[in-house]
Amino acid sequence: MSITINGSGTIGGVSVGGLPDGIVDTDMLASAAVEQAKIASGVVGTGPAFHAYNNSGDVSISVNSFSKVTLNAESYDTNNCFDTSNYRFTPNVAGYYQFTSRVSVGGSSMSRALATLAKNGTMFIYGNDIPTNVYGTVCDGLIYLNGTTDYVELYIYITATNPQFGGGIGNTFLQGFLARAA
Length: 182
Fold this sequence. Notes:
Blueprint: E1 10-11, E2 14-15, E3 49-53, E4 59-60, E5 67-68, E6 73-77, E7 82-83, E8 88-89, E9 95-119, E10 122-130, E11 136-145, E12 152-165, E13 173-181
Antiparallel strand pairs: 1-2, 3-6, 3-13, 4-12, 5-12, 7-8, 9-10, 9-11, 9-12, 9-13
């Protein structure tokens, strides 16, 4: 669209103080000029995304109880929202977050392994409950987080002798991203 300014102080026949919808387009905006808060509801924009993993090697845990998975390293964390000392994700943008996780498990005579996602310290989404000796369990889900105080952590429950979960970037991890802003 071409806009001309005439001698009467108007743009395209419209006074400057009352531009109709559609006059300003993306070519007129400076790069990175629109903040997440100014993007329409339901548009993702540049929300947080992260991939955290266990870089400690095998970690022994208690049998028949939920243990928080230590995720002490990151591949990426676009908004610095994952805390590698408390092993939790606390986003700075309210919205619906998609999470994917995997916990590499082990132990003698293992009969059960269950990964879960906890919201604010309460088990929220339960993953696949593996009843046999396998190498890993997964948990995925969509969770609403308020962008200030809500947080998500990964837990594991194992029934075995000497239960443990493994380390490594592809073995035990939690990753997530803003799927839709609130």
